[in-house]
Every structure is written in structure tokens, then in C-alpha cells.
Amino acid sequence: MPSLTPPAGDTDSAESKPARGRQGPRRFAGLSAAELSRVITAGVALPALFVLCSWVIESSWTDLPGRYPAHWGKGGVDRFSSPQEYINTQAVAAAVAAVVTAGIAAGNLLGGAWSPLSRGFTSVGAGITGAIAGGFFVQLLRSRGLTTQAAIELGGGAGFLGVAAGFVALFALTFTLLPRGKYS
């Protein structure tokens, strides 16, 4: 009958390797499974969900001006679009920011470590996503029930408030949800 004891000096012995199931929780980029899920939720899903919800809500508004002032130049409005074209354009811009945010989060994870800097960059990316979506959302919200001329007279001031509020809200939420990370 063969011996169940490995020969002396065998580096592949059962004693030199932890038994499967007794290794403890598996870690990715220094994060536990719960922390990893927080990065995916806050750094990937939350910005994308914010953009999608904004687009769905704005697309449901039927009381926007028929010709929406889409761009202002030195002499006033120099481009008009349909409300849905304007909504889709802003959604694409915000979606690009959300994809960049997801890329920042994924890049930091694939880089093998999650640090406080990773947390900060991902939060700023999410904040920029919130700024873009929030600015357009507030501008459109204020334009509901207005004529094209009234929307022109409204100007872009309301949108600036939405930019600030969107940035602060999504930055703060993401920063709070993301794990702190460690410097190596």
C-alpha cells in the first residue's frame, strides 16, 4: 500500500498549500467581495442608472416647447432642435461620462489595487456624470409648459444650478458608497 505521507522536502506537500475551502474569502484588488460589489454598484451601475432615469423622465414630458433652444452663441440662440433630439443629445453626453467613470473604476480594479485616489477619481467621474445629466434635467424641467420664446428668455441659468446640484449629489453619494482603499 502506498504511503499517504509526502516525502521529506516535497514543496508540493499538502502541508505547504492551504486546503481548498480554508483559504478565507477571495480578494480582488485588495477588496473583499462586499467592497468589490460596492465599487461595481457605485462606480458603474449608479452613474448609468442616473443617466437612464433622467432620459426616461425627460422623454416622458410632452409639454416642452416644440422648438427647443439647443445652443447659445454671442448673438443669442443660434441653434434649435426638437425636444427629443435635445434630450437624446444630453443623454449621450452623460452616458459617455458614465462609461468613462466605469472605465476609471474598472481600470483601478484591474490595476490590482484600490486606493483612496481610486475612490476620488471614480467619485469625480460620477460627479461629472451627475453634472451633465443634472444640468440638462433642470433646464428642461424649468422649460415645461413654456413657449419657445419663453424658454429663450429663461436662458441657461437654471441649468447651471442643475450642474452644481448634479455634481455634488452624485459625487457625494458615490464617495460615500465606495470603499476607502489603502495605499500600498
TrEMBL record:
Domain of life: Bacteria
Record key words, sorted: Membrane, Transmembrane, Transmembrane helix
Keyword Transmembrane: yes
TM region positions: 36-57, 91-110, 117-138, 158-178
Region of interest called Disordered, as start-end residue ranges on this chain: 1-25
Protein name (Swiss-Prot/TrEMBL): DUF1648 domain-containing protein
Organism whose genome encodes this protein: Leucobacter komagatae
